[in-house]
């Protein structure tokens, strides 16, 4: 269910005179430009290689789109640092861009349209601007601190679902799920059986954007990177939702991020249900 949100956005952090309205507009333009590049390679993704363990993929379009965004965003705020999935980087004390050029690379490489460009601007622990653009779906969700959220230009708000059994949820699984004991399977099975269902579409930024737009009532994940969540944290909060770690503490952009994002009404019920499910015996052991 969608409608008016039950909570208000957090207090505005200092912006040091930034024009967040103009900046948001420029970031949307940059994201859509990167999306046009991605569509050139969609269903013909060129070079694809594995990185790390568990089938995590990278394509030449991840690298090309990130290089493009590094240039475009660098021109917008020359003093900001840049942290990207492919090229890395180190957040400074001030403004920092967190960029995932393709969140959902596995989907992109297989011709599945559920992937996005994700761009978040933070100052320290405070998100200021967030843009999630899914080019194959023609979908852009964007927001800035104190300015609300829009989905393709229309105001977006979190859902008003108040009972966990009525909720539609989303989650993800770590790339090393075949060997990792805490692989989220227990929580997935328990919540899938006790709600309207749990979707797993393998793009955290896009799934979080759908929470902001009221299509999902909540999302959780055990092990994400900062660039996976940096844009959409702001979107959920500005749309009236709540974002924490799995213990209910304020979210911090650490090297590995646990996240729980909801419409606010379901936050504590979902957090308690997840804690109970994760304490159950493993569903199976992988040899």
Structural commentary:
With about 290 residues, this protein is an alpha+beta fold. It has two domains: about 20-155, Fructose-1,6-Bisphosphatase, Chain A, domain 1, CATH 3.30.540.10; about 165-280, D-Maltodextrin-Binding Protein, domain 2, CATH 3.40.190. Helix content is about 30%, strand content about 25%. It has seven helices and 14 strands. It has helices at about 20-40, 60-75, 105-110, 185-195, 205-210, 225-240, 265-280, and strands at about 50, 55-60, 80-85, 95-105, 115-125, 125-135, 140-145, 150, 155, 170, 200, 220-225, 240-245, 255-260. The strands form three sheets. It has a seven-stranded mixed sheet, sandwiched between helices. Strands 11-10-12-14-13 form a five-stranded mixed sheet, sandwiched between helices. A hairpin with a 2-residue loop joins strand 8 (about 150) and strand 9. The protein is globular. Mean pLDDT is about 90; it is low at about 1-5.
């Amino acid at each position: 269910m969608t409608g008016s949100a039950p909570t208000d956005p957090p207090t505005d952090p200092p912006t040091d005179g930034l024009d967040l309205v103009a900046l948001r507009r420029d970031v949307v333009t940059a994201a859509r430009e990167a999306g046009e590049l991605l569509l050139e390679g969609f269903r013909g993704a060129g070079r694809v290689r594995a990185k790390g363990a568990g089938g995590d993929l990278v394509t030449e379009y991840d690298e090309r789109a990130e290089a493009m965004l590094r240039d475009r965003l660098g021109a917008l705020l020359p003093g900001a640092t840049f942290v990207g999935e492919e090229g890395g980087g180190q957040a400074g004390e001030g403004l920092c861009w967190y960029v995932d050029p393709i969140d959902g690379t596995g989907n992109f490489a297989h011709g599945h349209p559920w992937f996005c460009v994700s761009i978040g601007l933070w100052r320290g622990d405070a998100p200021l601007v967030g843009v999630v653009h899914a080019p194959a779906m023609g979908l852009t969700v964007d927001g800035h601190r104190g300015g609300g959220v829009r989905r393709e230009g229309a105001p977006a708000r979190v859902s008003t679902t108040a009972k966990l059994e009525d909720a539609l949820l989303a989650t993800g699984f770590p790339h090393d799920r075949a060997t990792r004991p805490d692989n989220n399977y227990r929580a997935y099975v328990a919540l899938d059986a006790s709600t309207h269902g749990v979707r797993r579409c393998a793009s955290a930024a896009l799934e979080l954007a759908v929470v902001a737009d009221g299509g999902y009532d909540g999302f959780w994940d055990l092990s994400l990177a900062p660039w996976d969540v940096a844009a959409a944290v702001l979107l959920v909060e500005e749309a009236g939702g709540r974002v924490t770690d799995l213990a209910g503490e304020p979210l911090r952009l650490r090297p590995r991020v646990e996240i729980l994002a909801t419409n606010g009404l379901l936050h504590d019920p979902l957090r308690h249900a997840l804690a109970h499910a994760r304490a159950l015996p493993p569903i199976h052991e992988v040899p």
